[in-house]
TrEMBL record, chain A:
Gene3D superfamilies: P-loop containing nucleotide triphosphate hydrolases. The keyword RNA-binding does not apply. This is Ribose import ATP-binding protein RbsA. The lineage of its organism: Bacteria, Pseudomonadati, Pseudomonadota, Alphaproteobacteria, Rhodobacterales. PROSITE patterns: ABC_TRANSPORTER_1, ABC_TRANSPORTER_2. InterPro entries: AAA+_ATPase, ABC_carbohydrate_import_ATPase, ABC_transporter-like_ATP-bd, ABC_transporter-like_CS, P-loop_NTPase. One of its GO terms (cellular component) is plasma membrane. Residues 12-247, 260-502 form the ABC transporter domain.
From TrEMBL, chain B:
InterPro entries: ABC_transp_permease. The keyword Transmembrane helix applies. It is found in: Cell membrane. It comes from Falsiruegeria mediterranea M17. The chain crosses the membrane at residues 21-39, 51-69, 103-124, 136-155, 175-198, 230-248, 284-301, 307-326. GO terms for molecular function: transmembrane transporter activity. Its main location: membrane. This is Ribose import permease protein RbsC. It holds the Pfam family BPD_transp_2. It comes from the Bacteria. One of its GO terms (cellular component) is plasma membrane. Keywords: Cell membrane, Membrane, Transmembrane, Transmembrane helix. It is a multi-pass membrane protein.
Length: 507, 338
């Protein structure tokens, strides 16, 4: 048994759980106790077995050996979400909502209230209204899911779980796509659920959040149970160390000073576009420029407008000393300006295809010889990329959708680097990847900048903006509120500009 | 995540023989054996030649449909398009007799006209889907009705017949052979090779696959999505016009019943061949086999009295459903770890 603190019977516990897929073991005798009114964080690097353990705890997978106990009784959990009847609800990382249906319809999906064979819409609406009020979510039961923000969708999932009277709520990286403000709101809900006596298990890669919200932390590494500790006994640093099993001394690479006299490679003046209002900034050769702000502050929109992904209303862009308008992504790519999306599953990679066609897709004209594609060159490029970016695939013929998040991100970086860019724009470079891979990505970014490529890093994770960037642009509601340099690049300054408490006049 | 380890380790050894890829070929082989057992004349040279020639129309159209479907689209208008092109070709050739006589020139004018119409009709379908942002299903459903009624109108409800003297000049395109194979079969072979090369060896083919897999990824990867999608419809139109060029000399006429249900046969050939209907994976080789399978079924039914020839559609329908069921490929295998 892990060094438990409480004597009360755990509401859900795993005892010596092992799991193998075929001949590949992924969990080795893992134990974990989940108690009512407690927030239990599950941390570990990608591939440590967290998702598998969560699926076993919620009945989606059956363990190869070991026992699951519900309130102290050995139980074989029914699969396919039927464990919800026992009050155990898993919220998947990819939210499970019907996009074209309303909030109310989603919450009651599959167990609609009926009276005399007809849907009792009034009762359902009232119930959903009650839940929404309860957690302080400002949306209507009749809103369509497709119109909601990701944070709101997440809340709807929680409402769904509440309506099912969940005793144990298991969440896979609930905060991965939330801004800090949204995360705060989300945590407020979590605390309220906790007070109601709900047990909460959540996976997160954000260790600061784990410190802030959880009571217990269980660490997995390579399928092994490393330890369960009270959160107050741990620091984010010690958690990271337990996760990787080694010192993480230099998460961020040393910063190369940029030549202050270096030419402005990109100069944007008074850019206005959908979601962007009157934005001006410069980018030097070899510089790493951070873009910080809340989600929806218009950071992505700025670069989609620059790269020809969306239309531009007014403003001028100067690239390499000459006025430039990229009216297509291809034109931007040919000039050497590439954008790496934050949405690697929907906009970045073809998940059903293999690595080779994914790698060469962006720079495909480069691989055309005569009329046909030069497949030897593609193979060589893949070999190079695997070496340079340390992409680990068990089999080069694996579908990209089966790679871990970290390896997908490395492949995506390799894909845009095939274009030999002069300006690389990376949106959320480390979303949903583990700390070891994060460190690698940071070093790749620094190395790319050191080669003279200008890099723009758009990120909602403040430490990475602070640790990586030479200068930081802060945006709020489509406008730039401040450009920070040197000592000013710190969390409190950035937050002030991002929240609109401070604003500098643009020259 | 680790869950995938098992499936990849298992499949790597089996790559030499992939049931999904070989499926259509095996099906065709079985059909041929059945045909031979029912009537040995099935494998006679005359019948095989006949079978290949008959497959050529649907086959050529289906090669074009493979591009459209791979890029995530659909074209329901091909049958009507073939009919209206055939009709206009005949009108133009009959009209050109006065000026150019009944020689080769007139036939060439007819063929040129067919190609221009095919490209144009494809372009219309493509632009309405991409620039007009209307679902391909709706666009081509609409043009299907338009083309069908146009040919009826041109023929005034009856039949358009090609001038008898031109027929004599044009006739060899369907009935003559070159190196032992009928001309339509040669056209089919050339279109197939060109289609295979385009799909598997060029950037264009890769773009079609990428767009069909995920249009957003394609857009963010600097692919001109609208242009590529429009081009797939243009290729489809070109294929229809080629098929029409070899079809017209067969009967020398066109009517409102020309090319009826060709769109469904073409789509069926594509799907039987293993191309995924929702896009992202296209197989030209499979499409060709699919077209051969469909024609072979009809041919076998002609050879036997066991099943009425009127049930041809039933047999084709069954084959389509079975083919797709087999391709789903999860029969007999444990459901995945998810």
């Amino acid at each position: 048994m892990p060094d438990g603190l409480s004597i009360s019977t755990p509401i859900l516990s795993a005892d010596g759980i092992s799991k193998s897929f075929g001949s590949v073991p992924v969990l080795f005798s893992v134990s974990m106790d989940i108690r009512a009114g407690e927030v239990h964080a599950l941390i570990g690097e990608n591939g440590a077995g967290k998702s598998t353990l969560m699926k076993i705890l919620s009945g989606f997978l059956q363990p190869t050996s070991g026992h699951i106990r519900v309130e102290g009784v050995d139980t074989e959990l029914p699969g396919n979400g039927l464990s919800e009847a026992l009050g155990i609800v898993l919220i998947h990382q990819e939210l499970n909502l019907a996009e074209q249906m309303t909030v109310e319809e989603n919450v009651f999906l599959g167990r609609e209230l009926q009276s005399r064979g007809v849907l009792d819409r009034t009762a359902m609406r009232a119930a959903v209204h009650g839940f929404l009020d309860d957690i302080g979510l400002d949306i209507s039961p009749q809103d369509r899911i497709s119109q909601l923000s990701i944070a709101q969708k997440q809340m709807v999932e929680i409402v769904k779980a509440m309506s099912r009277d969940a005793k144990v709520l298991i969440m896979d990286e609930p905060t991965a796509v939330l801004t800090e403000a949204e995360t705060e709101l989300f945590f407020a809900q979590v605390r309220r659920l906790k007070e109601r006596g709900t047990a909460i298990v959540f996976v997160s890669h954000k260790l600061a959040e784990v410190s802030a919200i959880s009571d217990q932390v269980t660490v997995l590494r390579d399928g092994q149970w490393i330890g369960t500790h009270a959160t107050k006994d741990l620091t984010p640093d010690s958690m990271a160390q337990m996760m990787v099993g080694r010192e993480l001394s230099d998460l961020y690479p040393p910063m190369n000073e940029v030549d202050v006299d270096a030419d402005h490679l990109l100069s944007v003046q008074n850019l206005t576009a959908p979601g962007v209002h009157d934005v001006s900034f410069d980018l030097r050769k070899g510089e790493i420029l951070g873009f910080s702000g809340l989600i929806g502050a218009g950071r992505t929109a700025v670069f989609e407008a620059i790269c020809g992904l969306s239309s531009r209303r007014s403003g001028s862009i100067e690239f390499d000393g000459a006025s430039a308008t990229f009216d297509s992504v291809a034109a931007a790519r040919d000039a050497g300006v590439v954008y790496l999306t934050k949405d690697r599953k929907e906009k970045g990679l073809l998940l059903g295809q293999k690595m080779r066609p994914n790698l060469s897709l962006f720079a495909l004209p480069k691989f055309v010889k005569g009329l046909s594609l030069d497949q030897k060159a593609e193979d060589a490029a893949l070999e190079r990329a695997i070496r340079r970016f340390d992409i680990r695939a068990r089999d080069p013929n694996v579908n990209v959708g089966d790679l871990s998040g970290g390896n997908q991100q490395k492949l995506l970086l390799a894909k845009v680097m095939e274009c030999d860019p002069r300006i690389l724009i990376i949106d959320e470079p480390t979303r949903g990847i583990d700390v070891g891979t994060k460190q690698q990505i940071y070093h790749f970014i620094a190395a790319i900048a050191a080669e003279g490529v200008s890099v723009v890093v758009i990120s909602s994770e403040m430490p990475e903006i602070i640790g990586l960037c030479h200068r930081v642009v802060v945006m709020r509601e489509g406008e730039i509120t401040g450009i920070l340099t040197g000592e000013d690049i710190n969390e409190s300054e950035i937050v002030r500009y991002a929240a609109g408490l401070k604003r500098e006049r643009q020259q | 995540m680790t869950e995938t380890a098992m499936s990849t380790a298992k499949s790597s050894k089996l790559n030499g023989f992939d049931l999904k890829t070989a499926g259509p070929a095996i099906a065709l082989l079985i059909l041929c054996v059945i045909g031979f057992l029912l009537n040995p004349a099935f494998l006679s040279e005359g019948n095989i030649t006949n079978l290949l020639t008959r497959s050529a129309f649907i086959g050529i159209i289906a090669v074009g449909a493979t591009f459209v479907i791979t890029a995530g689209g659909i074209d329901l208008s091909v049958g009507s398009m073939a009919a209206v092109i055939a009709g206009v070709m005949i009108i133009v050739m009959n009209g050109a007799v006065d000026t150019f006589g009944t020689g080769l020139t007139t036939v060439l004018i007819g063929c040129g006209c067919s190609i221009i119409l095919g490209l144009g009709a494809g372009l219309v379908n493509g632009l309405l889907t991409t620039k007009g942002k209307i679902e391909a299903f709706i666009v081509t459903l609409g043009t299907m009705g338009i083309y069908r009624s146009l040919v009826t109108y041109f023929a005034d409800g009856g039949t358009l017949s090609l001038n008898y003297d031109i027929r004599g000049v044009y006739r060899p395109v369907y009935y003559e052979s070159f190196l032992g194979l009928p001309i339509p079969v040669w056209v089919f072979i050339i279109v197939s090779i060109a289609g295979w090369f385009l799909m598997n060896r060029t950037a264009f083919g890769r773009y079609c696959t990428a767009i069909g897999s995920n249009e957003s990824v394609a857009k963010y990867s600097a692919i001109k999505v609208d242009r590529v999608k429009t081009l797939t419809y243009v290729i489809q139109g070109l294929c229809v016009s080629l098929a029409t060029i070899i079809y017209v000399p067969r009967l020398g006429s066109a009517s409102s019943s020309t090319g009826v249900l060709w769109e469904l046969e073409a789509i069926a050939a594509v799907i039987i061949g293993g191309t995924v209907l929702k896009g992202g994976y296209g197989r030209i080789g499979g499409t060709i086999l699919g077209a051969l399978i469909l024609t072979t079924i009809g041919n076998i039914l002609n050879f036997t009295d066991m099943i009425s020839n009127y049930l041809n559609g039933t047999m084709q329908g069954l084959i389509i459903i079975i083919a797709v069921w087999l391709q789903r490929g999860d029969w007999g295998r444990k459901t995945s770890a998810d």
